[in-house]
Amino acid sequence: MQSSVTPSKEECTRAIAAIRDTLYVLGGKWKLPIISALIEGPLRFKELQKALEDITPKILSKELKELELNEFVTRTVYATSPVTVEYELTAYSHSLEKVLVELRDWGFQHRKRIKDCSKARRAAEKV
Amino acid sequence: MQSSVTPSKEECTRAIAAIRDTLYVLGGKWKLPIISALIEGPLRFKELQKALEDITPKILSKELKELELNEFVTRTVYATSPVTVEYELTAYSHSLEKVLVELRDWGFQHRKRIKDCSKARRAAEKV
DNA sequence: GATATCAGTATCCAATAAGATACCGGTATC
DNA sequence: GATACCGGTATCTTATTGGATACTGATATC
Asked: Is the pTM of this model over 0.85?
């Protein structure tokens, strides 16, 4: 199914539209990281907050609501005490795995590149 | 090289960080669409504006400057009259092709899904 | 009784992204 | 001379995002 990125003008236009569609539902700073955090399995609110490090509860709450609306996560309340709430990816979210893998791998190599650049710069300065 | 998304806690943390790294340089509404528009070859400012449909020149200009700074595009001025300015992807940008392909394909199927959903809804309402 | 945890809310504020609209100087065309 | 195209800028405003800080009510633990 995976056609390559071809140079036809029309296809290019459709590709741009498709990418904008994706970004429309998943854009912003947090949605993809949240989904990525939930890939290994369901997490509770506070656990998610820890996994995402510097997200505030307000933002996390807002993002989770949006993700729930768009059917990327489900929210389940357990009547323990104190109550626990679990967020879990839907099957639909799992269709994002390839996207996430590519974004992750690119991030890895980008960080390496940045590191190598600054290393080279430091070396040049020493001379 | 491509490892799967595994459930180890530490790897998950690193994956989240990597995705956030990617989003840090390429986040926002326009950067990925712009890069996608340039994949078939260099375009001039006005051509890009047309390809992106509803981007204003101010935003486009700003985004292009950022992309140039981060070495995703090069800007070449030709002394024609009136001057033409071409924006072209760098080799580094081409390392994003897989990312773009996945985002595009996901966008395609997402749009299809949305369409099917509303079709089903309309059918249900008719009954 | 004091303190802590859980899953958030409430309030207020700052930064940024995004957009509308108009405009610029230079050239070419009509 | 009027108009249009090119690659943008300038100015202003709005919307969205993000964040800090404090707090809530229920329960459990010390």
From this structure: yes
Question: Residue A75 pairs with which residues in a beta bridge?
Answer: A87
Residue B126 main-chain phi, psi, to 5 deg: -65, -35
Q: Shortest CA–C1' contact from A45: which nucleotide?
A: C7
Other CB atoms within 10 A of residue A62 CB: 12
* Tokens found for residue A11: 């296809």
- The mean per-residue pLDDT over the stretch A57-82 comes to 92
Mutate to test the interface with B, among A88, A89, A97, A110 (most CBs of B within 10 A): A110
Q: Which nucleotide, over all strands, has the C1' atom closest to the CA of A83? A: C6
Two structure tokens written together for A51: 């996994």
Separation between Cα atoms, residue B75 and residue B97, nearest integer Å: 20
The pLDDT of residue A115: 86
- Residue B31 three-state SS: helix
Looking at every residue in chain A, the average pLDDT score rounds to 89
Q: How confident is the model at residue A20 (pLDDT cuts 50, 70, 90)?
A: very high
A6: confidence class by pLDDT, cuts 50, 70, 90 = very low
Residues 6+ apart with CB under 8 A from B29: A20, A23, A27
Record: contact A20-B9, CB cut-off 8 A: no
Closest residue by Cα to the C1' atom of nucleotide D7? B45
Q: Give the three-class secondary structure for A28.
A: coil
